[in-house]
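Priority: medium. Attachment 1 of 2:
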């Protein structure tokens, strides 16, 4: 689907409801793509969700306001190394932007059994919705179900906070296809939110 940038006076929550996603390099611009979300009124943990949680019990996490998180050069270097090793196209200037000057206001920090940080996920939380926007993780956990757990945990926490929706970003067969297994999964198509038909 074609993407384009818009700058408007809608509220952040309204933009999400219309299927827009925030552009990573400018918090005032949004783009249109096949957005997805968990409708938390239809929240139900599946056997696959439980398997992901059970397989990642060795990892722990904390969540804190991004304003209290100390983003420093060491963290930046770690994330930069992770991105390069994973082969992602994500400039370090964009990483700095989303950590320091964007709409995202909470961060999850994940650690392994040795208390080593292995992942971060940046989120937007309002009184009504959430959005797990960006995840960064050590390539050593790439095949240990943790990347999926990062998303699933945000959905679970959003449900427990009694939010309406947890937005999940882009969705297609090529991008984020695993998201279809999230509780209450929907995607935006033809100006409507559609329940995914497995």
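Attachment 2 of 2:
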């Amino acid at each position: 689907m074609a993407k384009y940038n818009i700058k408007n006076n809608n509220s952040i929550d309204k933009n999400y409801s219309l299927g827009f996603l925030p552009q990573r390099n400018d918090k005032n611009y949004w783009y249109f793509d096949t957005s997805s979300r968990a409708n938390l009124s239809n929240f139900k943990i599946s056997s696959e969700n439980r398997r992901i949680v059970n397989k990642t019990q060795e990892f722990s996490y904390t969540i804190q306001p991004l304003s209290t998180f100390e983003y420093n050069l060491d963290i930046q270097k770690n994330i930069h190394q992770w991105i390069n090793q994973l082969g992602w196209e994500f400039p370090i200037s964009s990483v700095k932007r989303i950590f320091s000057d964007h709409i995202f206001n909470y961060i999850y920090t994940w650690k392994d059994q040795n208390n080593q940080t292995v992942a971060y996920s940046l989120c937007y939380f309002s009184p009504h919705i959430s959005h797990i926007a960006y995840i960064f993780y050590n390539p050593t956990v790439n095949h240990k179900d943790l990347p999926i757990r990062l998303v699933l945990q945000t959905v679970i926490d959003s449900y427990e906070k009694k939010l309406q929706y947890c937005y999940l970003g882009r969705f297609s067969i090529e991008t984020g296809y695993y998201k279809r297994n999230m509780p209450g999964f929907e995607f935006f198509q033809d100006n409507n939110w559609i329940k995914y038909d497995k």
